[in-house]
């Protein structure tokens, strides 16, 4: 029986094709056809349904079919022992099977990249659609940029892993590219081509971990626990610094560099650098304190020694504050820690403001109070609760002084709100004939000679009243 299956049917380029080889190839081809039909008729239509997924379904079919064909060719070569040597020297030997194995790895990388990109984009699109539906907004261009960023990271990582497998396991092309001499005795650190790819791969994986955490995992936690935007930004920045630091250390060690020796040798240098860059290190640690303590957060409106603006970004060394004039001011983090900073929105997202006004003596103070409250209630930027109120502050030299106090969440453009209230107060006062007086001063001039002659005020002295108007 064994002799029957081992009988040679024909020969190709010196390779004998037996009956067992033909049967094995036939069974293998039949298995591939069955798997392909299952994928094409059941799996693909189920997970890639709809007209919008038609192009992706076609691309997936091409990728899977290409991978099956290459795998079939490799199996065919191994079954009949067809392995032609294409290149050979003292260090590198490349055969026909190696070449097709490299093609299979590359095709698998393309297929993996395509599937992972679709899965990541689908989840991100679903979460962003839910967020947009909840807020009643259209998805922004930034969300598309986030999807593109995640897709590209997956591409780079998958293809780098494929290249590493091809270099090491398939083609054996891992050779030294950067020798570094470490001493006079000739010792050196040998950096190979694969180690360089490992270095880049570790950094990309660190970036992908940050992207997955900040775009896929943490938004759900923020939503469930109702974390404010300032806390979200602080968590994101701290994760970035920690993961990037760990990734950089692992990447450097993948090159064969001993970091312990480097830090030990650079200790004296670091002391000198620290003394020369005291302010820089102060800003760096102040940034860490801001992100952990969160006394100032992104979105807060602050008054920094007369500079009023919204905190747009808190970096590791500097922060960005956008003023009312739409100018971005770069502020060192130490200024937000050491100096006195007025944070209008630290405890609450509303603050109290007031507008002063004076009316003429004799005015109906009850009517004045009603008109001031009416002006405040008519403005959409003035909060109804806590309600606005009026204070009778003083009996002035030429007016009765009042203050209209109100609460608002419009921190940056509060001057516009106060201007609108003044316009409305002036209109209501004119409508109800309430007078806003101007300051007046009476000055009397008397003849000094008449005062001396009469030892008192002159009877026929010239009197002149001068009214001086001041703003």
Describe this structure in words.
The protein has 471 residues and is of the alpha+beta class. It folds into three domains: 2-227, no CATH class; 267-343, SH3 type barrels (Roll), CATH 2.30.30.60; 351-431, Alpha-Beta Plaits, CATH 3.30.70. Helices cover 56% and strands 17% of the residues. It has 14 helices and 16 strands. The protein has helices spanning 2-5, 19-47, 54-80, 96-135, 141-170, 193-225, 229-254, 259-265, 267-276, 278-293, 333-338, 365-377, 414-431, 448-453; strands spanning 8-12, 15-18, 85-88, 93-95, 176-181, 188-192, 301-304, 307-314, 318-323, 328-332, 341-343, 351-359, 389-395, 400-408, 442-443, 466-467. The strands form six sheets. A five-stranded antiparallel β-sheet has the order 10-9-8-7-11. The protein has a three-stranded antiparallel β-sheet with strand order 12-14-13, covered by helices on one side. Strands 1-2 form a two-stranded antiparallel ribbon. A hairpin with a 3-residue loop joins strand 8 and strand 9 (318-323). Helix 4 runs antiparallel to helix 5 (141-170), helix 6 runs antiparallel to helix 7 and helix 12 crosses helix 13 (414-431). The protein is elongated, with a radius of gyration of 40 Å. The protein starts with a helix and ends with a strand. 15% of the residues are buried.
């Amino acid at each position: 029986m064994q002799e029957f299956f081992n009988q040679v049917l024909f020969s190709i380029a010196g390779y004998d094709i037996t009956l067992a080889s033909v049967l094995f190839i036939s069974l293998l081809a039949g298995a591939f056809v069955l798997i392909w039909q299952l994928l094409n008729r059941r799996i693909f239509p189920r997970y890639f349904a709809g007209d919008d997924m038609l192009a992706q379904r076609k691309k997936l079919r091409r990728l899977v079919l290409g991978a099956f064909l290459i795998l079939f060719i490799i199996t065919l070569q191994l079954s009949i022992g067809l392995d032609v040597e294409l290149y050979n020297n003292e260090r590198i030997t490349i055969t026909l099977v190696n070449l097709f194995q490299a093609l299979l790895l590359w095709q698998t990388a393309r297929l993996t990249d395509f599937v992972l990109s679709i899965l990541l984009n689908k989840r991100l699109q679903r979460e962003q659609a839910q967020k947009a539906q909840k807020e009643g907004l259209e998805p922004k261009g930034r969300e598309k940029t986030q999807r593109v960023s995640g897709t590209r990271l997956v591409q780079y990582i998958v293809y780098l892993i494929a290249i590493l497998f091809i270099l090491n396991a398939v083609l054996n092309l891992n050779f030294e590219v950067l020798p570094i001499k470490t001493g006079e005795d000739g010792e050196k650190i040998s950096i190979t081509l694969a180690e360089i790819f490992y270095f880049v791969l570790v950094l990309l994986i660190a970036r992908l971990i940050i992207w997955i955490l900040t775009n896929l995992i943490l938004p759900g936690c923020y939503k469930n626990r109702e974390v404010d935007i300032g806390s979200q930004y602080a968590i994101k920045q701290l994760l970035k610094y920690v993961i990037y630091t760990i990734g950089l250390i692992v990447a450097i060690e993948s090159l064969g560099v001993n970091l312990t020796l480097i830090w030990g040798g650079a200790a004296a240098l670091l002391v000198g650098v620290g003394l020369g860059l005291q302010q820089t290190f102060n800003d760096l640690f102040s940034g860490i304190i801001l992100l952990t303590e969160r006394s100032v957060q992104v979105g807060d409106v602050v008054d920094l020694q007369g500079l009023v603006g919204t905190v747009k970004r808190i970096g590791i060394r500097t922060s960005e504050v956008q003023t009312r004039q739409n100018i971005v001011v770069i502020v060192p983090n130490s200024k937000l820690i050491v100096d006195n900073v007025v944070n209008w929105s630290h405890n609450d997202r509303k603050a109290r403001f007031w507008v002063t006004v004076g009316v003429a003596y004799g005015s109906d103070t009850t009517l004045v109070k009603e008109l001031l409250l009416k002006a405040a209630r008519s403005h959409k930027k003035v909060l109804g609760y806590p309600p606005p109120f009026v204070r009778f502050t003083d009996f002035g030299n030429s007016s009765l002084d009042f203050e209209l106090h109100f609460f608002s969440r419009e921190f940056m453009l509060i001057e516009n709100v106060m201007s609108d209230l003044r316009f409305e107060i002036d209109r209501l006062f004119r409508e109800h004939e309430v007078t806003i007086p101007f300051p007046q001063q009476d000055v009397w001039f008397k003849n000094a000679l008449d005062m001396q002659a009469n030892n008192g005020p002159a009877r026929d002295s010239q009197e002149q009243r001068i009214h001086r108007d001041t703003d």
